[in-house]
Design goal:
Layout (H helix, E strand, L loop, with lengths): L8 H5 L8 E2 H12 L3 H5 L1 E4 L4 E4 H15 L3 E5 L2 E4 L16 E5 L3 E5 L13 E6 L19 H14 L1 E11 L14 H13 L2 E9 L8 H6 L8 E8 L18 H8 L7 E3 L4 E3 L16 E3 L8 H9 L11 H11 L5 E4 L6 H8 L3 E6 L2 H7 L10 E2 L12
Bound molecules: S-adenosylmethionine.
S-adenosylmethionine binds next to strand 16.
Enzyme class: transferase
Family: Belongs to the N(4)/N(6)-methyltransferase family. N(4) subfamily.
Catalytic activity: a 2'-deoxycytidine in DNA + S-adenosyl-L-methionine = an N(4)-methyl-2'-deoxycytidine in DNA + S-adenosyl-L-homocysteine + H(+)
Length: 412
C-alpha cells in the first residue's frame, strides 16, 4: 500500500531509542506522526490469507517488522503488547547483529548502513573507484568499539577488504589510514604489522603499493606516553600512515591536479619574476635547472606526500553537539574531513563510487558528498550513525531512516 511504503524495520525501531518500553499503541501513534501516515491508511483493513479474515494493514506491517527486529536481537517483548530494545541493544554502543543490514540515513549521493562490513560488500552491484577507510588499529588498549590484536589483525581485516577489492574497477584504489604507534608487547620496539599487512595485501589480494603517505597531525596529543614521557626512549609522535594501494598501477585513477596546493606568495613572486635566473646544477649534476624554469604560471603546487592536517575539525561539530545533547558517546577516533577530501579528489572523479567499511561518523561519506561523488559507508555501532547523520542535514535528498529523524520521543 502506497501510504505505508516508508514503514520499514528502521522506522519501527526508531521510537524505542531513549525509551525504556513502548506499548504497541504508543508505537502506532508515533509511527503515524513520524511517517505522516493518513488516517485512512491507519484504519485500512483488507482480507488476508486463504481464510480471507480482514486485518488492519498498518498494524499488521508494524507487527511483522517487530518480529523481524526480534529475530535480529534488536527488540524484545516485555509483556503482551509492550516492547523494548533488547539487552544488547541498550548498551552504550549497539553493534549491528550479524547479517542485519539496516539503512541509517541517506542523501541523493550516498547512504550509511548500520551493518557489519562483512555482510555488505560481497553483494554490491557495481564497481568501486575508491575505498578510503581507517580500520580499528591493533591497539593494546581496547577502544569502546572493539579492536583486534596484532596477532590476528591480518586474518581479521583481509576477509573484510577482499570483497571490496573484488569490486574495484581497474585502476581503483584502497587507501588505509593506520596508526604507527603499535609496539611489540611490553617493548618500545614498533610492531611490524604495517609491513606484514602491506605484504599480505600484495600477496593475497593482488594489490600494489602506490605510496606510504604521512598524515602529519600537528595537534596530536603527546605520546606514546609509556615510551616517550615515562621511559624517555622515544620522541613524541606526530604522524600516522596512509597507505595507498591499487589493483592496476598502469590504469590507476589518480590525478594530482585535482588536489593542488595554493602557491605561496613567495613562489608566485618567483614565477612572476621569470622563474630561475641562471642555469644551475645540483647533487653532482643529477638535477639541473635552466634559466626561465618555473616561470610558466600554474594553477597550484603539486601536493607533497606529507599531508599536514590537524585532527580537530569544525566539520564534526554538528555531530559532537548532537551526541552531547542526546547522551550519545562521542566518536573517539575520527579523521578530519580534509584528509578524506584530499583522497576523494585525488583518486576519483565526480559521480564515482567511494566506500568506507569502517564508517565511524561517516567522514569518508562526508568528503564524498562535499565533492559530488557517490558513497556507501557501513558502521557497526548504531549510536555513531545517529550522530553522523547530523553532518548530512541539508544535503540534497537527506533522509534519516532510524537516525536523527525528528521523532516525537525527544531522543532524535
Ligand atoms: C577508526 S574508526 C573510523 C572513524 C572514521 N574514519 C571517521 O572519521 O568517522 C573505526 C570504526 O569502525 C567500526 N567498526 C569496527 N568493526 C566494524 C565492522 N566489522 N563493520 C563495520 N564497522 C566496524 C567501529 O565501530 C568504528 O566506528
Amino acid at each position: 500500500m502506497e501510504d505505508l511504503k516508508n514503514l520499514s524495520a528502521e522506522a519501527v525501531m526508531a521510537p524505542f531509542v531513549g525509551r525504556d518500553t513502548l506499548t504497541n499503541r504508543e508505537l502506532f501513534q508515533q509511527l503515524a506522526l513520524q511517517l505522516d501516515i493518513p488516517e485512512a491508511a491507519l484504519d485500512a483493513r483488507a482480507p488476508v490469507g486463504k481464510a480471507g479474515k480482514a486485518y488492519n494493514l498498518f498494524e499488521r506491517k508494524v507487527r511483522w517488522h517487530q518480529q523481524t527486529l526480534k529475530h535480529l536481537g534488536v527488540l524484545e517483548r516485555v509483556e503482551r503488547g509492550t516492547w523494548r530494545l533488547s539487552g544488547d541493544a541498550k548498551k552504550e554502543l549497539t553493534p549491528a547483529p550479524r547479517r542485519a543490514v539496516l539503512l541509517a540515513f541517506s542523501t541523493d549521493l550516498g547512504c550509511a548502513l548500520w551493518a557489519n562490513a562483512e555482510d555488505v560488500f560481497s553483494g554490491l552491484g557495481e564497481q568501486i573507484t575508491l575505498a578510503f577507510t581507517s580500520p580499528p588499529y591493533p591497539l593494546a588498549k581496547q577502544r569502546a568499539y572493539g579492536n583486534t590484536d596484532q596477532a590476528s589483525y591480518i586474518d581479521w581485516l583481509l576477509p573484510i577488504l577482499e570483497p571490496i577489492v573484488a569490486h574495484l574497477r581497474p585502476g581503483g584504489s584502497v587507501v588505509l589510514n593506520l596508526g604507527n604507534d603499535i609496539f611489540e608487547p611490553g617493548s618500545p620496539a614498533r610492531s611490524l604489522y604495517l609491513e606484514r599487512l602491506t605484504l599480505a595485501l600484495h600477496d593475497r589480494l593482488g594489490l600494489h603499493l602506490m605510496e606510504r603517505f604521512v598524515w602529519h597531525n600537528p595537534t596530536k596529543p603527546p605520546g606514546p606516553v609509556q615510551w616517550a614521557s615515562i621511559r624517555r626512549v622515544h620522541h613524541n609522535t606526530a604522524y600516522e600512515h596512509v597507505l595507498w594501494f591499487t589493483n592496476d598501477p598502469a590504469l590507476v585513477v589518480a590525478d594530482n591536479r585535482r588536489c593542488l596546493r595554493e602557491h605561496t606568495d613567495k613562489h608566485r613572486r618567483f614565477m612572476e619574476a621569470g622563474g630561475v635566473q641562471q642555469y644551475a646544477r645540483y647533487a653532482g649534476g643529477a638535477y639541473t635547472v635552466r634559466e626561465g624554469s618555473f616561470s610558466a604560471p600554474t594553477e597550484g603546487a603539486i601536493a607533497r606526500n606529507v599531508l599536514s592536517i590537524p585532527h580537530r575539525d569544525p566539520d564534526q561539530q554538528p555531530a559532537r553537539d548532537y551526541a552531547a545533547a542526546h547522551g550519545l558517546p562521542a566518536h573517539p577516533a575520527l579523521m578530519p574531513s580534509r584528509l578524506a577530501e584530499h583522497f576523494v579528489r585525488f583518486l576519483s572523479d565526480m559521480g564515482d563510487l567511494i566506500v568506507d567499511p569502517f564508517g565511524g561518523w561517516a567522514t569518508t561519506g562526508r568528503g564524498a558528498e562535499l565533492h559530488g561523488r557517490r558513497w556507501l559507508v557501513t558502521e557497526r555501532c548504531r549510536e555513531y550513525l545517529m550522530a553522523a547523520a547530523q553532518r548530512f542535514r541539508g544535503a540534497p535528498g537527506f533522509h534519516a531512516a532510524f537516525a536523527a529523524n525528528g521523532g516525537a520521543n525527544g531522543c532524535y
